[in-house]
Amino acid sequence: MIRHLLSGADLDAATATLILDTAAEMATVAGREVKKLPALRGRTVVNLFYEDSTRTRISFEAAAKRLSADVINFSAKGSSVTKGESLKDTALTLQAMGADAVVVRHPASGAPHRLADWVDGSVVNAGDGTHEHPTQALLDAYTMRARLGRLAGLHVAVVGDVLHSRVARSNVLLLSTLGAKVTLVGPPTLIPVDIAQALAPGIDVSYDLDAVLPNVDVVMMLRVQRERMTDSYFPSAREYARRYGLDAPRMRRLPEHAIVMHPGPMNRGMEITPEVADSPRSTIVEQVANGVSVRMAVLYLLLGGNNL
Ligand code: NCD
Question: Which reaction does it catalyse (predicted)?
Fold first, then answer.
């Protein structure tokens, strides 16, 4: 088993499949009255969040607690980080406390990789800047497999603000490893030149959402990340929604069996309409639920847990 999970590229097909299969076993715990396993009793998991998060932080906390680990939640607000303490000094503090795993979210791309050099425990990247978010890709893959029965041969459209999306990058890497075909769709300003070739071979790019929709099994909508935008990438929110937003008429272009995904948080009315987000094709709530099982599997396997 790998020691850290920093990138979608850390996972070969066998390891990724082991995580998904273990997550399926973990999911049975969620259905029980007592939602707890003793597997990580006595181990310490630190959630180190330097950037806002709702789903991911709660999900990792629930996952660690369901495995009986001790959980320490650290958020940059209210810590010595606001006094200018460096990531390295924070890492040394965690090290001194004996953290077995550090789950880190950070606005700087690459921060989890640096942290992995400074601590003895396992580091899990919970989102670094615009770079990667591998557990999101795993929970997305888990959701696709649960709904559609397989990953190999699926055609997945990843739509919208690819430029700022760590979710897109990790998904492209993992889905390619697992044999799915990915098409990136969005305005040319939000799809970095050469991204397709840089990430994995066989990735397509399209600027025409309507043309792509009839040919996909999965459409994954991305949030337009205004907080990371330093420039004007499209004329207006209305114009963006008109060309790249998923509304009900557009959703009808999808094949009957196709599903609609979104990692959250959504800009309802921008990249996705409420009607689509709340439709039976949407897996958005399932993705959140599956996230806990997938993160349980990741923590369990990285920490070499026992007593499953
Ligand atoms: C994403 C993130 O933070 O990278 N959300 C998530 O983890 N569920 C996507 C986003 O912020 O748009």
Answer: carbamoyl phosphate + L-aspartate = N-carbamoyl-L-aspartate + phosphate + H(+)
